[in-house]
Design a protein that fits this description.
It is a single chain. The protein contains seven helices and no strands. With 170 residues, it is an all-alpha fold. It has one domain (3-165). The longest helix has 36 residues, at 54-89. The chain is elongated and about 55 Å long.
Length: 170
């Protein structure tokens, strides 16, 4: 999906006040469950965990998905607030920038990657602690880079066009 089309879908949900759909589609399913299942399947097949220890692999995936669901919900809820406020204010203020970085970078990528790569059966507190800190820092960097790619004028123009159309776009 192209960035323009994704922004259009996000703005359509925001303009129509479809908060639950947004949280489920862009938070829980789009940022937590979907990517986690894809990465877990690739890891399971590539490293042979799915074939050698299928019970352990499936239990691990199930536990990770249970942990990721509330994180995806929180991420979707925070993102909803940021996008809604962005449409009202039409400019990024400092708190919006940090909420976006936290939502998209830390929750959407850093914590997601750490949980997916977390090994339930071979736990080492020091190694997991260090990887947690590194993934959170990488998530902050990734969220900041994602925030810098937003062209507010373009988003605002698209939002105004969607408001004028008033018809189903997504």
């Amino acid at each position: 999906m192209t960035k323009q089309r994704l922004i259009r879908k996000i703005l359509t949900c925001i303009i129509r006040e479809q908060k639950q759909k947004f949280i489920w589609q862009f938070g829980v399913l789009g940022r937590a469950i979907g990517p986690a299942l894809i990465v877990e399947a690739i890891i399971g097949i590539f490293f042979g965990e799915l074939i050698r220890h299928p019970q352990n692999f499936l239990v691990s995936v199930f536990i990770k998905l249970l942990v990721l669901m509330p994180i995806g919900f929180i991420q979707g809820f925070i993102s909803w607030g940021v996008y809604k406020e962005l449409l009202i204010k039409e400019v990024w203020d400092k708190s919006m920038k940090w909420r976006y970085i936290f939502s998209e970078g830390v929750l959407g990528w850093g914590l997601l990657c750490w949980i997916v790569l977390f090994d339930i059966y071979h736990f080492s507190a020091i190694a997991e602690g260090v990887s947690f800190i590194l993934f959170i820092l990488c998530g902050i960097g990734f969220g900041a880079m994602m925030r810098m790619t937003w062209n507010i004028k373009e988003v605002q123009k698209l939002a105004n066009d969607l408001k004028k159309e008033g018809k189903r776009v997504a």
